[in-house]
Amino acid sequence: MSTSTTASVSTHILDTSVGRPAEGVAVQLSARSGADADWQALGGSATDADGRCKDLPDLPEGTTHVRLDFAVETYFEKKQADAQQDAPANRDSGPGVFFPEVAITFAVVPGEHYHVPLLLNPFGYSVYRGS
């Protein structure tokens, strides 16, 4: 059993539309101490070539809830631009990105590590507590 007084968080993103890590996605970390407390922005990072954020900020003591904000719009816009260089895509007149951002909020307890993977594609996503 851990004796740490804070929880820790890590994440990674897999683009399930291509079966590869999503590189270059900005991730912001926020925390609060209680369901009615205000969110405190702690900072962020961006996913590396393996789709991982290895340098998210530490959580402050007393954190009970964490929010990860993934800015996926820029990632998908870059993917679309790269794809159109090879062959213009046929798409409807809707938005190029259905989910421009993904916000995941979860509860934490001191001493636990929370790995929260995001499985992402242009029209959906899923998330779970990993190991």
TrEMBL record:
Keywords noted in UniProt: Hydrolase, Purine metabolism
Membership in a protein family: Belongs to the transthyretin family. 5-hydroxyisourate hydrolase subfamily.
Pfam families in UniProt: Transthyretin (PF00576)
PROSITE patterns reported for this sequence: TRANSTHYRETIN_1
Organism: Streptomyces cellostaticus
InterPro entries xrefs: Hydroxyisourate_hydrolase (IPR014306), Thyroxine_BS (IPR023418), Transthyretin/HIU_hydrolase_d (IPR023416), Transthyretin/HIU_hydrolase_sf (IPR036817)
Listed name of the protein: 5-hydroxyisourate hydrolase
Catalysis: reaction(s): 5-hydroxyisourate + H2O = 5-hydroxy-2-oxo-4-ureido-2,5-dihydro-1H-imidazole-5-carboxylate + H(+)
EC class (word): hydrolase
Oligomeric form and interacting partners: Homotetramer.
GO molecular function: hydroxyisourate hydrolase activity
DNA-binding among keywords: no
Lineage: Bacteria, Bacillati, Actinomycetota, Actinomycetes, Kitasatosporales
Biological process (GO), any one: purine nucleobase metabolic process
Listed EC numbers: 3.5.2.17
Residue ranges constituting the Transthyretin/hydroxyisourate hydrolase domain according to the UniProt record: 9-130
Record function comment: Catalyzes the hydrolysis of 5-hydroxyisourate (HIU) to 2-oxo-4-hydroxy-4-carboxy-5-ureidoimidazoline (OHCU).
